Each structure stands twice: as C-alpha cells, then as structure tokens.
Amino acid sequence: MELLLIRHGLPLRVERADGAPADPPLSTEGRAQAERVAAALAGERLAAVYASPLRRARETAAPLAALSGLEVRIEPGVVEFDPHAPSYVPLEEIRAESHEAWLELMRGGLTAGVDVGVFRATVVAALERIVAAHPRERVAVVCHGGVVNAWAAHVLGLAETLFFQPGYASVSRFLAAGSGERSVLSLNEAGHLR
After folding, report:
1. Left if phi > 0, otherwise alpha if psi is -120 to 50, otherwise beta: which for 108?
2. In whole angstroms, what is the distance from residue 122 CA to residue 112 CA?
C-alpha cells in the first residue's frame, strides 16, 4: 500500500495567555496551500483521508477529502508531540525574530518535556493500524512535521526522531508491503505549492 503523509498548511500564530491549547486555524496562505495539495492529489485514487484531531490538520484535509468524495477520518495517534501547548509560532517566524531562540529550539528546546520515544511509538502504532486497514490501497494522512519525522525515522531506521523540517502542505510518500517492509518513495514533495 502507499501511505501519503501530508503536513498541514501554514496556521495562524496563536499565543494564549490563559494556558489553554493554541490549536490554531489555517492562515489565508495555509488555506491556499490546502487547496493546492488537494488539487495536486485529485487525480490519485485515494481509499481514505485521515487527519490529526488538531484544527490545522483537519482544515488541510477537508479540501482533499471533498475532491476525493471521502470523509475525513480522525486519527488521534498522529497528533503532534505538543498538542496542548498554549502557543503556536511558525518556526520561520521564530527564526526571523530571533536567530538565538531558533537555534535553542533546534538544539532540543522544541521537544523539551516531551518523551520523544513514546511519541514515536504512538505515531508508528497509529500508522501501522492505518496500513493494516488498507492493504493494496493509497491513503492520505494529514498530520504534522513531528509525525512525518517520526515515521520517516522509523522507516529509515534512524535513532534521531526529528531530523528534517517538512514544508507546510508538503507530501511524503511511503510504501508498506504486506510482508512488513517499509520504504520511502519521497520526502517533502512541494512542487504543487509553486
């Protein structure tokens, strides 16, 4: 089967003072990215469209599901590693505002307080359930950069879980054989966003 992992489109910046989860919606640009990825994949026969329960993923999945004539299926196991964080600031904005703050995040601050091993195991288990449910089919999963990294690291046999930055609304493709082999077809496809 072919598994397409799609990172959500660009969300709005949200910083909540009350400590409630940020869970931002897509920005105008993010909505356009969601439409473009849906149009790019419209010709591919999808058996299902799954999404993380976070708003930015659900909003990115909606146009693809609509064009494919499918309902979005929510999969809690592909939620990002920090779903309850009170802020969401795109890394590009952090880098533009403070190179030092961005470097600190890249040195491990991004996952401070997160059990990355548990996160990775949760992602792998969720995606393996999806793979098992769709033999010989093509399925799209709209998720997050951390999720794409966790699965790709698993498939590639890497010890490091977070090793690259998937672009917003990028597509990464994997093959999953019924015999258990997993392989990477592509990482971070973004030609549809130009």
Report:
1. left
2. 18
Within 42-160, residue ranges assigned H as helices are: 55-68, 91-97, 99-106, 116-133, 145-156
Question: Could you give the residue ranges of the DSSP H alpha helices within 2-88?
Answer: 28-41, 55-68
The residue type of 20 is: A
Residues 6+ apart with CB under 8 A from 88: 11, 12, 13, 14, 15, 22, 23, 24
CA distances (Å), origin 41, targets 19, 34, 69, 138, 183: 37, 11, 13, 11, 20
Q: Whole-model pTM?
A: 0.95
List of domains in the chain? 2-87+115-193 (3.40.50.1240)
> Tokens 């549809």 sit at which residue?
192
Burial of 28 (0-12, 13-18, 19+ CB in 10 A): exposed
User: To which residue do tokens 């309850």 refer?
Assistant: 84
Three-state secondary-structure class, residue 22:
coil
Q: Which residue has the tokens 């082999």?
A: 181
How far is residue 151's CA from residue 29's CA, in Å, rounded to a whole number?
26
Cβ-based neighbour number of residue 89 at 10 Å: 17
Chain segment 148-193, per-residue pLDDT in tens: 999 999 999 999 999 999 999 999 999 999 999 999 999 999 999 9
